[in-house]
Design brief:
CATH class: Mainly Alpha
Distance between the termini: 75 Å
CATH architecture: Orthogonal Bundle
Number of strands: 10
Strand order of the largest sheet: 1-2-8-5-3
Protein name: Cytochrome P450
Keywords: Heme, Iron, Membrane, Metal-binding, Monooxygenase, Oxidoreductase, Transmembrane, Transmembrane helix
InterPro entries: Cyt_P450, Cyt_P450_CS, Cyt_P450_E_grp-IV, Cyt_P450_sf
Number of domains: 1
CATH superfamily: Cytochrome P450
Largest sheet: 5 strands, mixed
Number of helices: 21
Cofactor: heme
Radius of gyration: 25 Å
CATH topology: Cytochrome p450
GO molecular function: heme binding; iron ion binding; monooxygenase activity; oxidoreductase activity, acting on paired donors, with incorporation or reduction of molecular oxygen
Oligomer: single chain
Structural class: alpha+beta
Length: 504
């Protein structure tokens, strides 16, 4: 009995200690707010929990009500941390002030990728790699991209003489997009291996499993949460260890051959155009022609980060565009099909050129509107990295270390920025404004803004346009059910196009 009492007393002591830490952290955070002219903290009913529940379960309602009551800039208390939300007037101030706000550091607080695939300095290197490959080289990649997209469509959708139901379009689109993306990242020698493509399709999902743990310990401090989720890593378990092995095993012989050919041919050797070669061009990664001196871990980590950044977003965007097109088939399908026909006739059914893709102006506007309407209400967390605090143009101040998230709804549904009926889907809204999907503007935030806007947006948009263009020309597509109830699970029916019939 005495031992039981001792155990219970010990548990009570531990619980009291933890509760005391939470209360101390909570009171400490509240006391620090009085030192600056901070944005108003939205009222909440329950101490410690704050806005955590409503932010997790009904974020849209919380943000809309807070915006209406407190104005464009306000703060929430979520998982033990004060988070500041900024709207349309302040969003681009955050984008421009990259010396004061860091998306990379903000993203790490939500997804500590650096714990699994190398130091986050790779993000900057990958940014440069993607920018260099696409900053003038995309015209040279169009042929490869197009061939791989057509091949992927034939492989995963194929001939549909009889109606064919694709029950999980998101998975199928991931299968399709993986092929051209892998080609650009790891090169033509090894991209089409089955295990490599499987890594491109599933690596992101393997990572996400680790980050599904609710950050309860963040009520005390975010550092504690990161320590807990990193415990498996310290014991040698890595959610993407198998993917890393696949990448290493496939790229190693490719690298060895490239270095051998470069040494043998000298100036006559033509460097392949892909991300893998960009790593090899770095003297810190490949200092000489000796494959034994290659920093393979650095290259593998870099490739894994590229896959994480490119695959899920591109395939999800392509899926969303396809769903929007099928859902609004009666309004837009025929007009977009006619544009596709005209372009196909102009190039005599041959390969599309870069200019041909640029001339898909109606499709481009449709893609941009789909991306606009599919944006999260609050996203792109930036961490304030000013020395002590930052003062916004509106006079509000946030301390260093504060997470500032962007209220996309405030921009996406503003009539002054979007034109009439901003909450409605209007496919040619951007065509009328002569505003292509890759253009960074105050009214379109899907790809971020400032110097660190998504460098792969040109590649992603062109891939989506080529995919939809081929679908329009080859298939008639309809929903497998009477209406779309959820855009995650509804099947789509593909059938070879019959020129005189368009099913509605």
């Amino acid at each position: 009995m005495e031992k039981l009492i001792e155990i219970l007393s010990s548990d009570i002591y531990i619980q009291s200690f933890i509760i005391g830490l939470i209360l101390a952290a909570f009171l400490s955070k509240l006391s620090r707010r009085t030192k600056l002219n901070e944005p108003p903290l939205v009222y909440y009913r329950f101490p410690i929990i704050g806005h955590t529940w409503s932010f997790s379960k009904d974020c849209d309602k919380l943000i809309l009500e807070s915006r209406e009551k407190y104005g464009e800039t306000f703060s929430l208390y979520v998982f033990g941390q004060i988070m500041t939300i900024v709207g349309k007037e302040t969003t681009h101030e955050v984008f421009r002030k990259d010396q004061d706000f860091s998306f990379r550091e903000g993203f790490k607080t939500k997804v500590p990728l650096h714990l699994i695939v190398g130091d986050s300095v790779l993000d900057e290197e990958n940014f440069k790699i993607v920018r260099d490959i696409l900053g003038g080289q995309l015209k040279h990649l169009i042929s490869r991209l197009q061939k791989n997209i057509i091949y992927a469509i034939d492989l995963h959708i194929g001939e549909c003489v009889e109606p064919k139901v694709i029950h999980y379009p998101r998975k199928t689109l991931a299968d399709i997009i993986a092929i051209p993306v892998a080609n650009i990242i790891v090169g033509e020698e090894c991209y089409n291996n089955e295990d490599m493509l499987e890594t491109f399709k599933s690596l992101t999902f393997s990572l996400i499993k680790l980050f599904r743990i609710p950050p309860i310990l963040s009520f005390i401090h975010p550092w504690l949460h990161q320590q807990i989720i990193s415990i498996p890593l310290r014991f040698g378990w890595n959610p993407i260890s198998n993917h890393r092995k696949v990448v290493l095993n496939r790229i190693k012989p490719v690298i060895e051959k490239r270095l051998y050919d470069k040494k043998k041919l000298g100036d006559d050797w033509v460097a392949p155009l892909d991300a893998l070669q960009r790593y090899l061009d770095d003297p810190k990664v490949a200092p000489d022609f000796d494959p034994n001196n290659i920093n393979y871990d650095y290259i593998v980590d870099g490739i894994c980060r590229l896959v994480f950044g490119a695959m899920t977003t591109t395939s999800n965007h392509a899926t969303q565009v396809l769903y929007d097109l099928v859902e609004r088939k009666q309004q837009y399908w025929q007009e977009l099909y006619q544009e596709a026909q005209e372009i196909n006739k102009k190039c005599n059914g041959n390969e599309l050129t870069f200019d041909d893709i640029a001339s898909m102006v109606k499709l481009d506007s449709f893609v941009k509107e789909s991306l606009r309407c599919d944006s999260d209400i609050v996203t792109l967390p930036h961490k304030c990295i000013s020395k002590s605090y930052y003062t916004f143009a509106n006079g509000y101040q946030v301390p260093s270390g504060r997470i500032v998230s962007l209220n996309y709804y405030d921009t996406n549904n503003d009539e002054e920025l979007q034109g009439q009926n901003p909450t409605e889907f209007y496919a040619f809204r951007h065509l009328e404004r002569n505003s292509p999907a890759i253009k960074l503007e105050r009214n379109f935030l899907k790809f971020g803004g400032g110097k660190h806007a998504c460098p792969g947006r040109t590649l992603a948009v062109n891939e989506i346009k080529m995919f939809i263009h081929k679908v329009l020309l080859k298939y008639d597509v309809r929903i497998d059910t009477k209406e779309i109830e959820t855009k995650k699970d509804v099947g789509l029916v593909f059938e070879n196009r019959k020129e005189s019939v368009i099913n509605i």
